[in-house]
Amino acid sequence: MTSSDTPRRALPVLDLVAPSGPPRDAVSSDDPRLNEYRPDTQALPAFHLWTLGCQMNQSDSEEMAGRLLAAGCSEAASLEAADLVVINTCAIREGAEQKVIGRQGHLARLKAANPGLRVVLTGCSVREAERDGLARRYPAVDLFLRPDEEPELVERLGLASAQGPIGAGSGLATGPVGATTMLGRRVVGAADNLAGTRAAAVDGGLLARTSAISAWLPIIYGCDKTCTYCIVPFSRGPERSRPFDEIVEEARGLAAAGYREVTLLGQNVNSYGHDLAPEARFGHITTERWAGRRIDQGSRPDLAELIRAIDGLRTGDGVPAIPRLRFVTSHPWDLSDRLIDAMADSPSVCEHLHLPVQSGDDEVLRRMGRQYGIQHYMERLQRIRRRVPGIAISTDIIVGFCGETREQFDSTLRLLEAARYDQVFAAAYSPRPGTPATHLADDVPPGEKRARLNELLALQEGIGLERNREWLGREVSVLVERIVPARSHEHATADDDAEIPVTGAAAGGDGAADQAAAGEGRGVNPGPGQVRLTGRTRQHKLVHLAGAPDLVGQFLTVRVQRAGAYALRGTLAQP
Ligand code: SAH
Ligand code: SF4
Ligand code: F3S
For residue 15, is it within any domain? Predict the structure, then answer.
């Protein structure tokens, strides 16, 4: 090897003395050759985000990841390889919280091995009213952030100023932020401005979206409803809608970036807008809540107006710029005729509605505080099926709620037979501390809850299979979402093949339906150059098929050849 082949370290040229001979370029302050002359800086942490729960948590995590990446942090491949673990929790049932509580020992061991490791816990398990007990339940956690404090993550970790340390002595606070005050059970404070921080995150590029095909788009935060079993209003606070134009702008940006599908998110997406200021341009909108507490929606934007505006974003050829528009979750209170009409009129709005019913018995619904009866619910279902032919309907059910008799449970089974849902996310009632239902006796024994759950799932399996069989032999449009890794396909575990449930009922990872759906992909036999693919129809049916890997993100016409209770299988139709 000659000396000229030896890589030589390039020393920075400091032009202190006027050079003799030909002029040389001045060295700019960001010249990498100067790096070794700069003072030592502490490395920024590699972070791992562990996200549980529903789509709102998935969306929030995209924002947290974006903020951490923008601050200069890198993403660690696993929890074990991280210097910063951020856990985005779900509190919907005890089981979801236990998953995180059960990992405290593991996290403590990781911290013992890596004293620089910091653990942040956020999401629905962090409630101001119960902050005192958090450190006891989650001993490995250094910092607790409520969902509305998540935009402060980077600042609270001292990462906002370039290369700030997160190591010991960085002053990680475990108490509440100064700006937080309580008004009754409600948290009010400077941090409670999610609707505003979202737009800033979008504008500032502080959003690490996990898919380049389908995007989450939060439109309303929190929940004002009165469901006695539910922790969400306590975790997420009151309903706050994002300004109409900001949402349409975010959708326009997604269309320009080539997103094929957008899902509008909210705990009650169809309550959108009631808390916004009235405006003359929305003067044609009048109050139209059919059930539940009356609110004045006059001259305020609603979900119907919003989906018409997003559907109205068109390409040069006049087709919707976002081909598929979805929204979750809708409350039966606010499924207005205006919304049903907007769904029927908007070609981009997918023929699928998730409409949680919770129980088939009016007395149980009353105790649950749902504020509608089965008659109202079935009337809404009938109307939407009439206006949007072929629409797929899914729901959430809670079995074994306080005082549920065998007869009342039977009413839920009869409802399933009458409604003929495409998909049901069911769970046993789990008392949540601080919710009104804890004043009622949780008197259905655990074994009986399990038995009712199994009975209900078995009944629905048959109904789901019948509904899916209606698709046999038909050609459907499938948006291909991903390649199924071979290993997960063979063993079909919930984690490997997890699809995000339509809503939170299965959130927290009950996963039984997911596993079954994954299993139905087993009959797919990829040919040379092909892989196993999964995608969804407009009706949100999961479809397994074989095809080239570059089909991900594309719309395909697929002929349905097999139907299971949870998924379809098909082959590419010849063009
Ligand atoms: N806002 C949505 C969904 C919120 S939570 C709605 O109102 O439909 C998602 C689902 O979790 C609920 O629909 C309900 O079926 C289930 N759930 C909520 N609290 C629960 C509890 N304490 N025990 C069991 N399931 C619960
Ligand atoms: Fe709100 Fe839904 Fe919970 Fe009811 S079940 S309180 S509507 S989040
Ligand atoms: Fe929260 Fe969603 Fe779970 S709102 S409690 S993460 S289902």
Answer: yes
Structural tokens at position 263: 């899902």
Q: Are residues 150 and 8 in the same domain?
A: yes
273: Cβ below 6 Å to ligand 2? no
Residue 211 has pLDDT above 70, yes or no: yes
Short-list 489, 560, 482, 481, CA closest to 520: 489
506-527 per-position pLDDT tens digit: 444 444 555 566 566 777 889 9
pTM of the model: 0.86
CATH number at residue 442: 3.30.750.200
For residues 143 and 9, state if they share a domain. yes
Pocket of ligand 1 (CB under 6 A): 92-93, 229-230, 232, 267-268, 329, 331, 356, 358, 396, 398, 427, 429-430, 432, 503-505
Distance from the CA of 165 to the center of ligand 1, in angstroms?
A: 40
Secondary structure of 163-230 in HEC code, one letter for each residue: CCCCCCCCCCCCCCCCCEEEECCEEEECCCCHHHHHHHHHHCCCCCCCCCCEEEEECEECCCCCCCCC
Of ligand 1's listed atoms, the one at least distance from the Cα of 268 is 1
Alpha-carbon 356 to chain mean position: 17
Q: State the pLDDT at residue 498.
A: 33
The CATH number of whichever domain residue 28 belongs to comes to 3.40.50.12160
Least confident of 14-18, 370-374, 474-478, 482-486: 14-18
- Domain count across the chain: 3
Secondary structure of residue 441 in the 3-state scheme: coil
Residue 49 alpha carbon to ligand 3 centre in Å:
16
Rounded distance from Cα 229 to ligand 2 centre (Å): 8
Q: pLDDT confidence of 177, banded at 50, 70, 90?
A: very low
- Ligand 1: distance of its center to the CA of 229 in Å? 8
Of ligand 3's listed atoms, the one at least distance from the Cα of 92 is 5
Is 20 among the domain residues? yes
Lowest mean pLDDT among 36-50, 363-377, 518-532: 36-50
Same domain, 13 and 145: yes
Atom of ligand 2 nearest to the CA of 358: 5
Q: Examine the domain organization and report whether 85 and 130 are in the same domain.
A: yes
Directed axis angle between helix 374-387 and helix 337-345, to 10°? 20
Closest ligand relative to 505 C-alpha:
1
Residues 420 and 567 both lie in one domain = no
pLDDT band at 316 (very low <50, low <70, confident <90, very high): very high
**Ligand 2 pocket member 484 (CB < 6 A):** no
Question: Residue 4 falls within a domain, yes or no?
Answer: yes
Backbone CA torsion sign across 172, 173, 179, 183: positive
Is 90 exceeded by the pLDDT of residue 487?
no
Domain residues for the domain of 539 are 471-572
pLDDT tens column, 253-299: 999 999 999 999 999 999 999 999 999 999 999 866 655 566 777 88
Domain boundary among 417, 447, 470: 470
Extended beta strands in 400-499, E state:
423-428, 475-483
Last residue of a domain, one of 470, 491, 513: 470
Of ligand 3's atoms, which has the minimum distance to the CA of residue 56?
Answer: 2
Do 77 and 33 share a domain, yes or no?
Answer: yes
- Position 503 scores a pLDDT of 39
**Percent of the chain at pLDDT exceeding 90:** 71
